[in-house]
């Protein structure tokens, strides 16, 4: 799960010593809920020696109490997406309005305290080998509201849903605020983590975090191809599906990048998702715990974790 502190039990096993390090007898995973303040309290009380992830202001706070910070640049992100199976999000003009009203840099600054890189709403990262440098959508709040009026939805109340957790809640709050600044009528709904994931692919308009995959085509095949189980966008575009199939079958990265450029522009033009930034991922470990730094794939390798000899 995403909200986990990790306690590495302090007992050393001399039979497992290797290169001056004592490997762990066992690792205990402790779920402290979704509030980073609880993780902080657990660290200060000695209840845990490692965080699975540290976010927002707590990156500096954990560092300030003597924990060692690890940072990795990734293709992890958040999407704030309309589901096209629910009106008025089946209207392309509405979806385009929802994109043009929002400055992604503001979402990065307020949602992640600036810890990451701005994205361009097509869910392929510059660290993906086939990324194509398609420009970002121009922010224009007046034009966004004009699109909403053209669609006949100026009176619609947009309910924006998120989980009650750190950067996802904060990013969605910032998004809702920008919609209001553009003249949209917005309600915010925050759902506890204990129930949010029950219907995450079905909400009409909500935010979701996505972890990194090695290739952009992998993300598209999971999330944007018609009929996929994790296609929370309700996106079903045969032309996009055909481009994706061609990209998946193209081994040469330069040739695949040309195909991806068309798909990236298509996702923007169709207003499929507000995908505002690429997250820098952080975690913290107690001094002396090695082999537990953050991984670009959001993985940990317990066999590598050890306490360094003093």
What Rg, in angstroms, do the CA atoms define?
21 Å
Determine the mean pLDDT.
90
Separate helix tally: 10
Q: What is the spatial order of strands in the main beta sheet?
A: 2-3-13-12
- Report how far apart the termini are: 33 Å
Helix content: 25-40%
What's the total number of strands?
13
Described by strand count, sense and barrel closure, the largest sheet is: 4 strands, antiparallel
Q: Structural class, please?
A: alpha+beta
Q: What form results from the Cα inertia axes?
A: globular
Strand content bin: 15-25%
Order of helices and strands: EEEEHEHEHHEHEHEHEHHHEEE
Question: Regions with pLDDT < 50 over 5+ consecutive residues?
Answer: 1-20
How would you summarize the topology of this molecule?
Blueprint: E1 5-8, E2 12-18, E3 21-24, E4 27-30, H1 36-44, E5 50-51, H2 58-64, E6 68-82, H3 92-100, H4 104-112, E7 116-118, H5 141-150, E8 157-163, H6 166-181, E9 185-191, H7 193-196, E10 205-210, H8 216-223, H9 238-248, H10 253-269, E11 277-285, E12 289-290, E13 306-308
Parallel strand pairs: 8-9
Antiparallel strand pairs: 1-4, 1-5, 2-3, 3-13, 6-10, 6-11, 7-11, 12-13
What this model shows, in words?
- It is a single chain.
- With 310 residues, the chain is of the alpha+beta class.
- It is 32% helix and 24% strand.
- It contains 10 helices and 13 strands.
- The chain has helices at 36-44, 58-64, 92-100, 104-112, 141-150, 166-181, 193-196, 216-223, 238-248, 253-269, and strands at 5-8, 12-18, 21-24, 27-30, 50-51, 68-82, 116-118, 157-163, 185-191, 205-210, 277-285, 289-290, 306-308.
- A 4-stranded antiparallel beta sheet has the order 2-3-13-12, with no helix packed on it. A 4-stranded antiparallel beta sheet has the order 7-11-6-10. A 3-stranded antiparallel beta sheet has the order 4-1-5, with helices on one face.
């Amino acid at each position: 799960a995403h909200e986990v502190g990790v306690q590495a039990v302090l007992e050393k096993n001399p039979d497992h010593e290797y290169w001056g390090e004592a490997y762990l007898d066992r690792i205990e995973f402790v779920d402290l809920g979704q509030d980073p303040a609880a993780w902080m309290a657990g660290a200060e009380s000695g209840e845990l020696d490692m965080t699975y992830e540290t976010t927002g202001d707590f990156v500096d706070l954990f560092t300030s109490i003597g924990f060692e910070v690890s940072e990795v640049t990734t293709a992890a992100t958040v999407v704030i997406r309309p589901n096209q199976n629910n009106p008025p999000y089946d209207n392309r003009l509405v979806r385009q309005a929802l994109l043009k009203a929002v400055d992604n840099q503001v979402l990065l600054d307020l949602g992640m305290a600036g810890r990451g890189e701005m994205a361009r709403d097509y869910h392929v990262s510059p660290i993906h080998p086939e990324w194509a440098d398609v420009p970002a959508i121009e922010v224009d709040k007046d034009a966004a509201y004009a699109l909403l009026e053209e669609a006949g939805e100026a009176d619609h109340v947009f309910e924006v849903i998120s989980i009650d957790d750190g950067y996802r809640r904060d990013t969605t709050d910032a998004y809702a605020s920008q919609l209001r600044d553009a003249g949209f009528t917005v309600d915010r709904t925050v759902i506890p983590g204990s129930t949010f994931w029950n219907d995450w692919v079905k909400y009409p308009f909500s935010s979701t975090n996505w972890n990194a995959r090695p290739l952009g085509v992998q993300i598209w095949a999971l999330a944007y191809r018609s009929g996929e189980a994790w296609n929370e966008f309700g996106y079903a575009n045969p032309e996009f599906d055909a481009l994706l199939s061609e990209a998946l079958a193209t081994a040469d990265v330069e040739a695949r990048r040309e195909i991806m450029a068309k798909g990236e522009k298509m996702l923007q033009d169709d207003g499929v998702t507000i995908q505002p930034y690429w997250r820098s991922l952080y975690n913290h470990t107690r001094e002396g715990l090695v082999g537990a730094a953050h991984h670009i794939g959001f993985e940990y390798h317990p066999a590598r974790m050890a306490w360094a000899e003093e």
